[in-house]
Amino acid sequence: MAKRDFYEILGVSKSASAEEIKKAYRKTAMQYHPDKNPGDKAAEEKFKEAAEAYEVLSDADKKARYDRFGHAGVGSSAASGGGGQYGGSMEDIFSQFGDIFGDEGGGFGSFFGGGRQGGGGGRQRGARGSNLRVKLKLTYEELVKTTQKTIKVKKYIICKTCNGNGAKDSASIQNCGTCQGSGQVRRVQQTFLGNMQTVTTCPTCNGAGTSIVNKCTACKGDGRIFGEDTIDIDVPAGVQDGMQMSVRRRGNAGERGGAAGDLLVLIEEEKHAELSREGNNVLYDLNISFPDVVLGTEVEIPTIGGKAKIKIPEGTHSGKIFRLKGKGFPNVNNSYEKGDQLVHLNVWTPQNLSSDEIAAVEKMRQSSNFKPGSKKQDKSFFDKVRDAFS
After folding, report:
1. Both 130 and 256 in a single domain?
2. Are residue 6 and residue 141 in the same domain, yes or no?
3. DSSP for 144-200, written as a single string
4. Residue 360: CB partners within 8 Å, gap ≥ 6?
5. How many domains is the chain partitioned into structurally?
6. Which residues pair with 155 in a beta bridge?
7. Are residues 315 and 256 in the same domain?
8. Which of 13, 121, 224, 352 has the greatest number of C-beta atoms within 10 Å?
């Protein structure tokens, strides 16, 4: 199913300011928050959808790529989570936006009466893992269609010995004595307005709610180790050199169960032996002999992933551009729109002629039909190039 426009999800225009986007997200998240809509799967999906939209539109770089390339520019098609939805857990979403809602744990507890029951209250997981950047080289044949690439990357991965919790065994994990496992400390202060309750992150466990008595021997309590991961990347058709995709939650693993960072994939085009690229169009220089342009011929030329034949009419001038419609790259935002292949004709000049060849050419030179200017060209070479790209 096609993903909805991020601006439409938050109900703002493309020209909306950062503050307007933030306010719109706050309103939408409040409306569809699971605590206000218990058991409503549709509301939960809209809540996740709003979180994904805000994550992109609140980041200047991601927003710029989204405005230019749509969902493909921010790697939404490669996001985990199925159906193109937000790839993190509900806890990931709550933990990311505490600065918006002013809630120390990011759990919306102050709005809905004291945190999410059954989800660890105000506990915070470990620190989020860092993003990981890789370069992905692709051939023209891969760029012209939707391609899946499998890569291996060296990064921090979850420790399998302790399953990421950093403890030697389950008995080594104890509730924090300060916050009694909630991850938060509540204080009541008397003011002239009456009793005011504040909620802050527990200073003893830093919001984890637990402490480790005996650390895992494999990861030394970090919950992660340095290793190798195999990742499948779905590359949409038509991406170009320099574009960056984001594969959600496939970067470095976080500490002690913290969310993983993202894998940022920079697209690099491998040079083609015969073709070049200009936007979604493919360019090819065709060298042809003088007799062929005079008498006309049919030649076979390379295309992306194949061959094509074009007819050269007799009397064709050097510099003419032939257009092979639809033989270019698809539009990354609309695969039904395709560029063309433009074939630029060059007349090849031979060297090291034999005496008989020199005599034949000399005879042609004496003919009035071979005098330049006998037939005026309607357009210059630069006009033709401009017309080909218009």
Report:
1. yes
2. no
3. TS-EEEEEEEEEEEE-TTTTTS-BSSGGGEEE-TTTTTSSEEEEEEEETTEEEEEEE
4. none
5. 3
6. 227
7. no
8. 224
Using alpha carbons only, what angle is made at residue 276 by residues 275 and 281, rounded to the nearest 5 degrees?
Answer: 105
Amino acid found at 317: H
Instruction: Assess if residue 204 is contained within a domain.
Output: no
State how far the Cα of 235 lies from the Cα of 329, in Å rounded to an integer: 14
pLDDT over threshold 50, residue 81: no
Specify whether 134 is located in the same domain as 64: no
Residue 370 lies in domain: 276-389
Rg (CA), the chain: 31
- Strand partners of residue 232: 150
**Does 75 share its domain with 19?**
yes
> Distance (Å, rounded) from C-alpha 259 to C-alpha 120?
16
Give a yes or no: residue 249 inside a domain.
Answer: yes
Each residue of 290-344: pLDDT tens digit?
Answer: 999 999 999 999 999 899 999 999 999 999 999 999 999 999 988 789 999 999 9
CATH of the domain at 354: 2.60.260.20
Residues 6+ apart with CB under 8 A from 219: 159, 161, 162, 166, 225
Pick 83 or 239 by higher pLDDT: 239
Q: Which amino acid is at 142?
A: E
Question: Is 289 a member of any domain?
Answer: yes
Q: Tell me which long-range contacts 89-98 makes (C-beta under 8 A, separation of at least 24).
A: 89/259, 90/34, 90/44, 90/48, 90/119, 91/119, 91/120, 91/125, 92/259, 93/47, 93/48, 93/51, 95/124, 95/125, 95/259, 96/51, 96/55, 97/25, 97/29, 97/51, 97/54
Residue 16 one-letter amino acid: A
